[in-house]
Each structure stands twice: as structure tokens, then as C-alpha cells.
Design goal:
This protein has about 270 residues and is mostly helical. About 75% of the residues lie in helices and about 0% in strands. The protein is elongated, with a radius of gyration of 23 Å.
Length: about 270
């Protein structure tokens, strides 16, 4: 709920209708999350019993929305924090603005009538969002490599943590590895595919609507969050496949030892 209402809280020029809509969406998101985490039969949210996977994703989402909201609020009432975040975004956006990069392709989504200021606003927002997603992805990989995910003091329930995954359709390890590779591939390609499809299907997005505060915040957040989330899901599925393979190997070793002992007895 806090993530959804952050832009409306930080920015001063938000209309009453926009604030009411944000409050309604926040209430729905909070109710959905509460129901999902307090029922025995999950339906949508994955890895609900395998922290800190969803905490890292939520932190990445909040950090992206917060930073972009601070930058947009600073356009009317500049503060030290807004100038700092804007400077970081400008530096990252300019350094990543090279041919065929995701930031360059994000700029190409704008129509040719876009002014240099509008192009710079999109580039800086893309830089902030992309940096936040990369940092969050690095944090998750560090936690995974450090052995903190999934927690070893609890049993990993596939049904609870992967409610949309059918473990009975084929070999579990092979399907987990295949889905993990697909998610990683999609996470890599989406930042390139979306701007390319937009530029081909039309003459570009209207720069006035694209650079409006709310639209720019949520568009750039989704543009950076979705690929990073797919990357994390792919890495997580690969980790689970590795765990299942280790469990099967250990179980096979125990069975072979038991069989050997039984043969000696008889």
C-alpha cells in the first residue's frame, strides 16, 4: 500500500481524483497481499514462504518508485535529496546512453516531436530505474550465494511457494531448469523488445503524456522492475532445481547403502 501511494504523497501537484484512485488501488493491493499470506491455499503470489525473495522484490519496487517520485517532486520544489537523486540518474543515464542499450531504446519510444528536456527526463528516469533494479538483483544474488536463500531451517514446499507450477507434469528438475532459463531470457530481452515494438507499431509515444509525472514514474518502474523480477524468478527456479537434485542424490546414496546392508544380512 505504501508503494502505491508514494507518488501521491511526495508530489504536490496531484489532483484529488488521482489521490483517491491511488488510495483505492493501494487498498486493493493490500487486501490481496493480506489474503494471499493468510490462507493455506495460495493462488497468485509465489515464494510467499521463502523469504527474503519477495522482500527484495518489494524493496526494489519501493526504491524505484521512491527515487523517481523524489525526482519528479523536485521539479517544482527542489531539495538536496531530489538534486542528489537527479544527479545520480543523470550520470547513470548518460553513461548508459549508447547505441542499442536499454536506456537508448527507452528514449526512442518518444515521438520525434519530443524536446531535449523531455528526452533527458526519460533518460534520467530510465537510468535511476535501471540502477535500482541492478542493485536489487545483485543483493538477491549475494543472499543466494551466501546460503541465505532458501532458508535451510525450514522445508521448502513447492505447492505453497509455486502455486501456479504443476510439479507432476514431467520431471520436476528438468521443468524447473527450463522455466528458469526462459525467465532469464525474457528478463534480458524485455528491456530491448518493448521499446522496439513501440517504435515499430507507431510513430512513438506522445512526449507530453510520457513525461507527465505519474506516467513517467510508473512506466519506468514497470520497464525496469519486470525484467529484474523475471531474472530473480529464473535464478530462484534454478536454485530450487539444484536443491531437488541434491536431495535426490542424497536419497539415492542412502538407498544404495541400505540395499548394500540388506544384501549383506541375507
Amino acid at each position: 500500500m505504501g508503494v502505491v501511494v508514494t507518488p501521491s504523497v511526495l508530489m504536490s501537484g496531484v489532483s484529488v481524483d488521482a489521490r483517491q484512485m491511488a488510495a483505492l488501488v493501494a487498498l486493493f493491493a493490500g487486501l490481496l497481499t493480506f489474503v494471499e499470506y493468510n490462507t493455506d491455499a495460495p493462488s497468485l503470489i509465489e515464494f510467499r514462504d521463502a523469504p527474503p525473495f519477495n522482500r527484495v522484490r518489494l524493496g526494489m519496487l519501493f526504491a524505484t518508485v521512491f527515487c523517481l517520485s523524489v525526482v519528479e517532486s523536485g521539479r517544482e520544489n527542489a531539495t538536496s535529496l531530489s538534486e542528489l537523486v537527479q544527479a545520480v540518474g543523470h550520470l547513470v543515464g548518460r553513461s548508459m546512453d549508447f547505441p542499442y542499450s536499454p536506456v537508448r531504446l527507452a528514449k526512442l519510444m518518444l515521438a520525434e516531436t519530443a524536446t531535449p528536456a523531455q528526452v533527458m527526463a526519460v533518460r534520467d528516469a530510465a537510468g535511476i530505474a535501471y540502477l535500482t533494479s541492478l542493485v536489487s538483483l545483485s543483493v538477491f544474488v549475494i543472499l543466494l550465494k551466501a546460503g541465505s536463500w532458501p532458508l535451510r531451517d525450514r522445508v521448502f514446499n513447492v505447492w505453497v511457494n509455486l502455486p501456479t507450477f504443476d510439479p507432476t507434469a514431467g520431471d520436476l528438475v528438468e521443468r524447473l531448469e527450463r522455466d528458469g532459463r526462459i525467465n532469464i531470457a525474457l528478463g534480458f530481452l524485455i528491456p530491448f523488445i518493448i521499446p522496439f515494438v513501440v517504435s515499430l507499431s507507431s510513430s512513438g509515444i506522445n512526449p507530453d503524456s510520457m513525461t507527465s509525472s505519474q506516467t513517467l514514474i510508473w512506466t519506468m518502474t514497470a520497464w525496469a522492475f519486470l525484467p529484474a523480477s523475471l531474472f530473480m524468478r529464473g535464478i530462484a527456479l534454478g536454485r530450487i532445481a539444484e536443491m531437488v537434485r541434491d536431495i535426490r542424490r542424497a536419497q539415492g546414496a542412502r538407498d544404495s547403502v541400505a540395499t548394500s546392508r540388506a544384501s549383506r544380512v541375507f
